[in-house]
Write a structure and sequence with these properties.
By secondary structure, the chain is of the alpha+beta class. The chain has a domain of about 50 residues. It has 3 helices and 2 strands. It has a two-stranded antiparallel ribbon. Strand 1 and strand 2 form a beta hairpin. The chain starts with 15 loop residues before the first helix and ends with a helix. The mean pLDDT is about 90.
Length: about 70
């Protein structure tokens, strides 16, 4: 177990050992789950990279929406 202390400004410093396990991120999704605080690293630039790759492959937003609709109705 690794401890993190909350400051008077409600801030936490993530322990180095924890960050090394999940990878550093500037943003984290924060949710409460049965009294636990769950942090999930978010990489906002990831969506940009995915959109660029889809464009390279000639896959449009309509193609993606059609695929999602097809999968949901299976």
């Amino acid at each position: 177990m690794v401890l993190a202390k909350r400051t008077s400004k409600n801030q936490l410093t993530l322990p180095k050992a924890v960050v090394e396990q999940v990878g550093a991120a500037d943003y984290y999704d924060v949710v409460c789950d049965n009294g636990r605080i769950v942090l999930t690293p978010i990489h906002p630039g990831g969506a940009v990279a995915v959109r660029a790759r889809l464009a390279e492959l000639g896959i449009s937003e309509t193609d993606v929406a059609d695929a999602v609709n097809w999968a949901r109705h299976r």
